[in-house]
Structure to design on (851 residues):
């Protein structure tokens, strides 16, 4: 790629960035997300308590500054602040990585099927239908049996399921784009199929893709807690927001903070993700006017 | 009740639309009146405010975006007891408006495909409208009236059609149903917003004749909105020319068309293909081998059914076509929608694979070449599309659109060089080189079509398929684009296959004309001969159906 081309692309990204900055809710959400990530990464180190350390003096204690239990403790006397933040690491990681995996596979697969159309489309989408029909739990248990339990496997398992819906959405979009004039013009100019898919099909499917991706992240986080609940996900002493919420729900009446604090962390994250998704969709679309 | 009172009097109407915090003066101080039994044509280019005027009269604009800071619309409302009231539509209560809409003022729209509800039968839709305005009417009576209405708009087997769903009817039939619905309640005023724009010329001619007959037999007034001066010439008693929300000229049909007072009207009339100065005749040179030719070309689309999607039948979109196009020649391919002309153009370019037959470029057969071997030929053969909105990728800048094909074919030494070439091409299509850095949505329709032409030109092709390139454009823009294409042809010795349904454009632009019907070429010859002295009955019908401004000029002069 020559110098000027790189410059041209930089200009487009700059414009997109400018548009995102102009979208106040999205830009604030980006700040919130970065903040939560940072706190999750650094927070546990700031607390005197460790993840699996039991404070025998305060079991199921409400939040207090004296014992350095900022979020209180759970039914076993473990510090909820540390557990919530390190649980956040797992949840955010699973949410983002599994969504990224499903995006990558789903968009490529769906765009290819939609663009090629005809027999190829039929064949590729039948494969998706068959995978849809597989019971998810059965699939996960099979994976666990073959490969043993690991965090990576959770990504693989969730990603392998989530891309199916993404592929269907992208394929539908691609079908409507492929008969537009610019695709024919690109074929006539001798562009290869891959170039056409990359330059003309995928960018024009972005709107719904981003919206769906922001919906996928919470889905994935909840999926993970479901797996953990069944004993197929992360294992003690490691934890995640989903696990914490499930545990908190059990002691909701006696110790409401064990439910409310991890749940509000999750809620704030998901809300911020939705706003960010909206902002990204607008920012990446050149038809949204560039603010001056 | 005064008999000479106009049916509708629009007095200083202003309609402002609010969008994104801006206020657009869509209709700005427009006054005109329509007498009983009269046809008033509002004519203008897109965005001139003619449709908004109609919607303001019938009060169909959403209240939260539109406002009327001035003006009155007086309508001579005849209620069910035949008492006359002079009402101002702008200040009327919603209940009274509902009484008037559909019963005293009816409206038909451009798109017959979307104006009928697909999940109800035609009969149900007409009967519903009737019962709404005549609460005392019984269902069998309403059905009888609906049947009569369908018969009046000359729908064959009306009693069976009554129970058909809209998808079983052709576009022309649907528009007839819309008219039947509109006249079923015997309105005093019919507002027709581009009612024939989406239809073929022969169908258009039928519908226009039908509207005239109905109007005469019922003494109905028509407010006819159109962009097409040919249609105006056929329909209007009075004409109003709109531009940017203002009525710039108004008068009787003959005086406006033959002695336009306003410079804008004159410019519009001069831009009609039939009035454009013909360029010096293109010298028909003789070539040993044609640039592009097709031999017995066929494109069949399989109709698949069942789980295994086996082929049960074929649609013969192109059914054995032979044609030859010489370098520098403009060949028009004319036909009505569904005749296969677009498919033929795409098959020649191999955007669709032909089912049988051969295509030759400069003597070499290209119809069975594998994709990789086809690539060197690609740059010689390009296409320009009808809809400049959907044919440009909204996510790329013009610069990327123009330089990328050059990169694929290794034209230009560096990116800088390719940009220079792209700028040069933009200048040729009369666009500022600065437009390279814009996105399609930042351009107007005409500018986008120029970019579409520039994109076809950057590879320096010798043959371009122009697929209805001017159908989506206003007349004045159309004239510019046509003149530009002619100039480019002379400059570069380009051969063009000009696919269109517009006979006026054909006469202006082409050297030779092919007439296509049902997948076959039924007539072929020099344009002048085909258009003025057609020999095939289909061509004769087609040519006769074209509404022309010139007919008014001549007949009015004799009068």
């Amino acid at each position: 790629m020559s110098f000027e081309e790189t410059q041209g692309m930089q200009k487009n990204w700059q414009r997109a960035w400018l548009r995102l900055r102009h979208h106040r809710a999205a830009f604030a959400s980006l700040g919130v997300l970065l903040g939560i990530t940072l706190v999750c990464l650094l927070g546990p180190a700031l607390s005197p308590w460790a993840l699996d350390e039991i404070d025998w003096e305060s079991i199921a204690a409400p939040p207090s500054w004296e014992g350095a239990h900022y979020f209180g403790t759970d039914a076993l006397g473990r510090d909820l602040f540390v557990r919530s933040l390190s649980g956040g690491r797992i949840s955010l990681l699973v949410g983002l990585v599994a969504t990224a995996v499903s995006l990558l596979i789903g968009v490529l697969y769906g765009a290819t099927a939609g663009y090629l159309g005809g027999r190829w489309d039929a064949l590729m989408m039948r494969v998706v239908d068959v995978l849809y029909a597989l019971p998810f739990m059965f699939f996960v248990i099979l994976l666990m049996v073959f490969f043993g339990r690991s965090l990576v496997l959770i990504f693989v398992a969730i990603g392998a399921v989530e891309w199916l819906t993404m592929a269907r959405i992208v394929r539908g979009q691609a079908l409507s784009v492929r008969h537009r004039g610019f695709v024919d013009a690109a074929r006539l100019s001798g562009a290869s199929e891959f170039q056409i898919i990359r330059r003309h099909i995928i960018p024009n499917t972005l709107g719904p893709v981003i919206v769906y991706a922001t919906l996928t992240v919470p889905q994935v986080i909840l999926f993970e807690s479901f797996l953990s609940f069944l004993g197929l996900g992360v294992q003690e002493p490691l934890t995640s927001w989903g696990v914490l919420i499930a545990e908190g729900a059990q002691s909701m009446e006696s110790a409401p903070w064990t439910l409310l604090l991890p749940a509000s962390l999750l809620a704030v994250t998901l809300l911020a993700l939705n706003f960010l998704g909206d902002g990204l969709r607008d920012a990446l679309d050149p038809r949204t006017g560039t603010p001056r | 009740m005064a008999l000479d009172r106009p049916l509708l009097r629009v007095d200083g109407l202003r309609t402002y639309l609010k969008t994104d915090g801006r206020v657009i003066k869509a209709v700005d101080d427009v006054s005109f009146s329509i007498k009983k039994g009269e046809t008033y044509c509002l004519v203008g280019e897109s965005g001139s405010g003619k449709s908004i005027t109609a919607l303001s009269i019938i009060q169909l604009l959403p209240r939260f975006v539109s406002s009327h800071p001035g003006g009155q619309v007086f309508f001579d409302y005849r209620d069910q007891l035949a008492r006359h009231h002079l009402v101002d539509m702008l200040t009327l209560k919603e209940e009274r408006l509902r009484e008037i809409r559909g019963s005293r003022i009816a409206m038909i729209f451009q798109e017959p495909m979307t104006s009928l509800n697909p999940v109800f039968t035609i009969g149900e839709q007409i009967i519903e409208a009737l019962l709404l305005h005549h609460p005392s009417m019984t269902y069998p009576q309403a059905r009888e009236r609906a049947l009569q209405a369908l018969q009046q708009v000359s729908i064959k087997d009306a009693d069976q059609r009554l129970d058909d769903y809209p998808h079983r009817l052709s576009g022309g039939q649907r528009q007839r149903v819309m008219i039947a619905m509109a006249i079923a309640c015997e309105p005093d005023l019919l507002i027709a917003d581009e009612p024939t724009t989406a239809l073929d010329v022969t169908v258009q001619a039928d519908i226009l004749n039908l509207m005239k007959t109905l109007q005469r037999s019922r003494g109905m007034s028509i407010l006819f909105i159109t962009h097409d001066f040919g249609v105006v010439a056929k329909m209007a008693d009075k004409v109003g020319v709109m531009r940017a929300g203002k009525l710039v000229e108004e008068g009787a049909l003959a005086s406006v068309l033959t002695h336009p007072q306003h410079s804008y009207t004159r410019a519009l009339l001069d831009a009609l293909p039939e009035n454009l100065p013909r360029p010096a005749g293109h010298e028909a040179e003789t070539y040993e081998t044609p640039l592009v030719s097709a031999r017995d070309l066929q494109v069949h689309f399989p109709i698949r059914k069942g789980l295994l999607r086996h082929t049960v039948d074929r649609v013969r979109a192109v059914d054995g076509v032979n044609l030859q196009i010489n370098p520098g020649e403009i060949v028009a391919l004319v036909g009505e929608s569904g005749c296969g002309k677009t498919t033929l153009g795409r098959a020649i370019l191999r955007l669709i694979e032909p089912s049988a037959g051969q295509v030759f470029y400069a003597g070499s057969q290209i119809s069975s070449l594998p994709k990789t071997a086809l690539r060197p030929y690609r740059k010689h053969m390009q296409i320009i599309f009808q809809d400049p909105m959907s044919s440009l990728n909204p996510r790329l800048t013009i610069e990327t659109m123009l330089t990328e094909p050059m990169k694929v074919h290794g034209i230009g030494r560096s990116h800088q060089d390719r940009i220079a070439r792209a700028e040069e091409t933009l200048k040729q299509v009369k666009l500022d080189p600065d437009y390279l850095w814009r996105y399609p949505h930042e351009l107007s329709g005409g500018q986008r079509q120029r970019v579409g032409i520039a994109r076809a030109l950057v590879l320096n092709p010798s043959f371009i398929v122009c697929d209805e390139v001017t159908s989506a454009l206003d007349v004045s823009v159309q004239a510019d684009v046509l003149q530009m294409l002619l100039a480019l042809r002379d400059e570069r010795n380009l051969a063009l296959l000009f696919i269109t349904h517009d006979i006026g454009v054909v006469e202006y632009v082409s050297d030779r004309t092919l007439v296509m019907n049902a997948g076959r070429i039924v007539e072929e010859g020099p344009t002048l001969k085909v258009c003025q002295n057609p020999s095939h009955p289909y061509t004769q019908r087609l040519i006769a159906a074209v509404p022309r401004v010139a007919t008014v000029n001549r007949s009015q002069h004799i009068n």
